[in-house]
Queue: 2 jobs
Job 1
Amino acid sequence: MNQQGILVVISGFSGAGKGTLMRALMEKYDKYALSVSATTRQPRAGEVDGREYFFVSQEHFKSMVENEALIEYAQYVDNYYGTPKDYVEKQRSAGKDVILEIEIQGALKIKKKFPDTLLLFITPPNAKELKRRLVSRGTESPDVIEARLKRAAEEAVGIEAYDYIIINDNIDDCVEELHHLIQAQHSKTSNRLDFINEVRNELNQL
Amino acid sequence: MNQQGILVVISGFSGAGKGTLMRALMEKYDKYALSVSATTRQPRAGEVDGREYFFVSQEHFKSMVENEALIEYAQYVDNYYGTPKDYVEKQRSAGKDVILEIEIQGALKIKKKFPDTLLLFITPPNAKELKRRLVSRGTESPDVIEARLKRAAEEAVGIEAYDYIIINDNIDDCVEELHHLIQAQHSKTSNRLDFINEVRNELNQL
């Protein structure tokens, strides 16, 4: 079967370990493609254009919107973030499962546009662990940590819209769970309608 | 988390290899419980009461229906088949994922009563393989094979109601796929609402 790739959105609390999980998943399996978002925000130290984000100007972003070159976009504070359509479509046609690591606002837009999208939400095993991870990074001020925890409480509001809640207690186990969840999508009845019709035709011809 | 077991219905074409798959799944993992149906039909050679079926009289079956001791029942030709409630509830409470190997008629009743039920449909890779397996058993007359293929064509009509279509090309791979599909259910958002509320409460108390 030459099946089209699955579209997967991965969201989660900051501090849930999404970045580490994505890197581990990509390293272990070559059937995934990680979509890189376009953004108008400035690159931070260490960020590389085309790796973390495509860093574009406000004008460029505006033209992408006008040319329908984004499958969704959203604004956070003063910056825009969007998912380039071209990359997603090419990879899916090539049979790759495409992963978008985006926030709930974008996730809901994608789900509305593509109802077969798999929405996954990553969470640490509990809120204390979430706080511990944010604190132990050592890179954030108490104010930023406070703001992130407040934001986490807000993010938890939309969590019911996701298909699965994945508890990241152990990276290796979690990568395997993600992999199996995504691969299971290929067996969903809605993704096997062609196969079903084939079997039906064959049965009628026997 | 002390989560209740998942309810899983497994159906499929005769000749799809359900019986072999179920035995292999039970042997490999101890987290599953296979529900044994009650039936009014006569035992066939080699069948053991309480293993393949609970063989009961028409009167006994009728009293089970009246006492609401079955979670679903259906009639095929002159015989009744039903799923005893007691066993299913006890096993699920103990955290076991309970598998019902029943036909589409019963599957749809279960799904209506328990919307979280996972409906899985097993199929051989194609119709020719289905015919080959039925013929190579060597136990059935051409008429019976003909009747089964006709029935398969009919069964394929309801197939869209199932959540996943599992292609049984290789027993070991198929057992693993079943296992991962069933385990994934535990991470479904609807099965993690308690967890979500816990994290929310914790976040609000930090």
Job 2
Amino acid sequence: MAEKVIIAVDACGGDNAPGVVLEGVGQALSQDPDLEVLLCGLPSVVEPFAASHDRCQAHPASQVIEMGEHPAEAVKEKKDSSIVVGCKLVKEGRAQGFFSAGSTGACLVSATLNIGRIKGVKRPALGIILPGARKETFFLDVGANADVKLDYILQFAQMGCVYASSVMGVENPKVGLLNIGEEDTKGSLFAQDAFRLLRDELPQFAGNCEGGDLLNGGFDVVVTDGFTGNVALKCVEGTSKMLFTLLKQVFMSSTASKLGAMLLKGSLKDLKRKVSPDTYGGSPLLGIDGVCMVGHGSSNATAVCNGILSGCREVRAHVGDKISAMVGAPGREVA
Amino acid sequence: MAEKVIIAVDACGGDNAPGVVLEGVGQALSQDPDLEVLLCGLPSVVEPFAASHDRCQAHPASQVIEMGEHPAEAVKEKKDSSIVVGCKLVKEGRAQGFFSAGSTGACLVSATLNIGRIKGVKRPALGIILPGARKETFFLDVGANADVKLDYILQFAQMGCVYASSVMGVENPKVGLLNIGEEDTKGSLFAQDAFRLLRDELPQFAGNCEGGDLLNGGFDVVVTDGFTGNVALKCVEGTSKMLFTLLKQVFMSSTASKLGAMLLKGSLKDLKRKVSPDTYGGSPLLGIDGVCMVGHGSSNATAVCNGILSGCREVRAHVGDKISAMVGAPGREVA
């Protein structure tokens, strides 16, 4: 039997909330018998669902933070929103993790303010598991910190190592620094300084990683600032989306191609699943004193389910404790 | 009849030089009857080719700058290299443009040192035409300047407008700033400052462009610093490469899929051509006092041919004169 885990879930976050969120919660509850969900959101949404599901408690919240709202202002003003209520359940120790497919910005602000950082962590970082032709890569920061200092980058790399080794099961993760050339002397002045710091302080550091190598599995963890990381992630997602759109056009272009596409249907679906962000369903916000998973706004039920289950894995892997042990210890002793 | 154009070509640059370069030069000469090529490189390479082709002159160079060499040192030391010889032909007015598929870094350094910048241009920028599902986008800087100042960004945007309108034929190009959110207040402090500057000084400015929107044709020109731009470009290329690799695996996975792939072969080739960097064959280095096109190291003959022809188009469009007129004029009077 797995360790019991309690996750607070924002029932009202995401483009397709609450429908797909509730469906995803239902799937997660049935896939993980040791999961308990605290469902946060409008009473009319969370109460009937909790009443009809085992291991699910309703935590009414009278407000919803919308996607377009200014994150910091919304979190400050909407103290009874599902995002704030969910984070507070983690802070109070009533849940070990929080999942939302709502506003990423509001989740970052609320997690930082209402749950707080792990002692010693300078800034939390948002990570994501990228698919690859050979293997997966953990990539951070993908948007929590648009402006970073040098020492944040080292901590991001350390937190990435913890996640890769304890959640993704990578032994001795190889860490790369996202840069615009492979050689030591390449890149912006900041990237050059970051290279030297990582080389000197992080035993797992293995060199620079170019944008084109992000998906080819040469590194287990790739680290960058939240501006470059967000641009890079969106470029990967955007290119993939464009190519699938163009492929669809190719498939519909003639009778022969329609037939060809029919024969490929099953394997193409597998491919699409492989590269889809729904497979993990969320980005872990590392460095927060509790698990916090942020899902894509466009999450479907599978993504929500997988996001919640990824949160459970992070809780069971004791990622927070390991990060805490690491940032307190000198760089060279990182596990 | 089109205007006569003389392009100096580095015969020894690129992973597959000189074979594919010579083949590409041959194709370009036969496609453009008003093109003349000054072929720079080892005498044993350039002399026999020039002797057997009309409108092609040999310009022997005794040295070759290899891909792995330090750009600035190589350009300084190898004064009789094909890259330096080619740029000097432009400086002396004997050629109007230079094309090389060799070391991008060495081309940037040599073009800046040996040809020089247009008066008023603070830094040259490397641009690229990105394919898209709906239409193309001109994207810069993709790597000439890892560290930039605010006023460089404005000039990059202005030079991008000139290229898009005069070479790509876009009327009233819409300019976007690569950023990590659409709203005015999003992004790093630098990106926020750049947003305000572009909004105030560039009539063509239309707002922030997220990484995911780079390929969807919402903007005609997207501007960023050379670090972010290079990462973004490599991510787009890397994702495309990974997906085609995975597609190939899908196609070979069963008898049915092999048959399906056969039926799709022709249209998939069209798709691959559409998103291939070979279609334009090179990145224009804007802001240099003469045309300079840098090809991919892995260029094939088609890419070399298209790179040379893109250079001709830039010469005939008088891009340099237009940039010169623009940087001398106040921001609001940009064409």
